[in-house]
Design brief:
Structural class: alpha+beta
Radius of gyration: 20 Å
Strand content: 5-15%
Distance between the termini: 51 Å
Number of helices: 2
Number of domains: 2
Largest sheet: 2 strands, parallel
Shape: elongated
Helix content: 25-40%
Length: 125
């Protein structure tokens, strides 16, 4: 029972530390910085001695990662832009596009068009 009490106390200390750091970050970083909570977590967990196991195959980020492999999630960090012929248009807005930043003010439309057929090289779709 003492071990459980110690563990709960440790978690409360970690949460309090995270709360202090998040407040500090919220007051010092620009209001539009969406990564503030991640920064606060990273700093608080490092100060609290939390160890993380990083897995390179945990997540893919299209359009730069082109194979799913054994990954667990797809994270749309970047916009996916294609010509209607199915060619990826790197670094420019394509005729078909999905970019999560386009939907900051609300969800994507229910009738979001599917991407154009793409060559076999791109296996995510």
């Amino acid at each position: 029972m003492k071990e459980l009490a110690d563990e709960i106390r440790e978690e409360k200390i970690g949460v309090c530390l995270w709360r202090e750091i998040i407040f500090d970050i919220l007051t010092k970083l620009p209001a539009k910085s969406l990564s503030r909570f991640r920064y606060a977590y990273a700093v608080a967990s490092a100060l609290h001695g939390v160890q993380h196991i990083l897995r390179k195959d945990f997540m893919i980020q299209p359009p730069w990662d082109t194979e799913i492999g054994k990954t667990c999630i797809i994270h749309f960090t970047y916009g996916c832009d294609y010509a209607l012929k199915g060619e990826l248009t790197y670094d420019k807005i394509g005729e078909w596009r999905f970019d999560k930043r386009s939907y900051f003010c609300g969800p994507p439309p229910k009738n979001l068009p599917l991407p154009p057929p793409v060559p076999k090289v791109w296996s995510l779709w």
